[in-house]
């Protein structure tokens, strides 16, 4: 998932960005309601996590404005205001869920995953298949020839991106931006290491490899049988 966190408490935001990253997702941060509105309107996010009390534009007003302009990305409101009336106001403003502070990250993650699954008009596949390889984006289960493959969160994101672009060359720059969230080349062999590990898990013991290195260009997932 790609998540936008709109939170003016920088420590709280940094914690959430790190926690979602460790869970295998991508999280961006906006520190005020106006910035959050602009990023949510233009960005391809699966879920918005919005603090209610924000500078420049409060969270409920931000969500209401997005709904008026037909941005339907699911929004979960975080707030220290947890009374019934507060929750009702949040939902009526266009929020899809409301979680009072303090909260457990495990509950927040579960709620965000539910919102992502029911996103209206998402139109994107939830299961990718290439040959006998199958990746379920919701359950994070990967199988080849019916056998489950255990992947680390970063390996899963790498494979997910490759399978989303199956049959096309994926460059190092594309991987850095979409899997590692780098907008520059850090000059390390991190991609090569992860691709090598992923290849050993996907192709070892199989006659036909699926993960290919395209010399001088990048990498590709394709069904060798075709």
Automatic annotation (TrEMBL):
Q: Which Pfam families did the record assign?
A: Response_reg (PF00072), Trans_reg_C (PF00486)
Q: Which intervals hold domain OmpR/PhoB-type?
A: 125-223
The record ties this protein, via InterPro entries, to:
CheY-like_superfamily, OmpR/PhoB-type_DNA-bd, Sig_transdc_resp-reg_receiver, WalR-like, WH-like_DNA-bd_sf
Q: Which SUPFAM superfamilies match?
A: CheY-like
Q: Which residues form the Response regulatory domain?
A: 2-116
4-aspartylphosphate is found on 51
Residue ranges of DNA binding: 125-223
Give the record's keywords alphabetically: DNA-binding, Phosphoprotein
The protein's name in its UniProt record: Response regulator transcription factor
Species per Swiss-Prot/TrEMBL record = Labrys neptuniae
Lineage start: Bacteria, Pseudomonadati, Pseudomonadota, Alphaproteobacteria, Hyphomicrobiales
């Amino acid at each position: 998932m790609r998540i936008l966190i709109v939170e003016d408490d920088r420590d709280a935001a940094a914690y959430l960005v790190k926690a979602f990253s460790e869970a295998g997702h991508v999280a961006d941060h906006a520190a005020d309601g106006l910035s959050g509105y602009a990023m949510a309107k233009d960005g391809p996010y699966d879920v918005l996590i919005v603090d209610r009390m924000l500078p420049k534009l409060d969270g409920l007003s931000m969500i209401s404005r997005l709904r008026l302009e037909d941005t339907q990305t699911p929004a979960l409101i975080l707030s220290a205001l947890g009374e019934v009336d507060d929750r009702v106001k949040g939902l009526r403003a266009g929020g899809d869920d409301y979680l009072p502070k303090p909260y457990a990250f495990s509950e927040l993650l579960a709620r965000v995953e539910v919102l992502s699954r029911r996103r209206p008009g998402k139109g994107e596949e939830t299961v990718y298949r290439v040959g006998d390889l199958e990746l379920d984006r919701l359950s994070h289960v990967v199988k080849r020839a019916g056998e489950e493959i255990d992947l680390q969160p970063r390996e899963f994101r790498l494979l997910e991106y490759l399978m989303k672009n199956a049959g096309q060359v994926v460059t190092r720059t594309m991987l850095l931006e979409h899997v590692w969230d780098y907008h520059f080349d850090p000059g390390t062999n991190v991609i090569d290491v992860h691709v090598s590990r992923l290849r050993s898990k996907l192709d070892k013991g199989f006659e036909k490899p699926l993960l290919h290195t395209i010399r001088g260009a990048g990498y590709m997932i394709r069904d060798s049988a075709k």
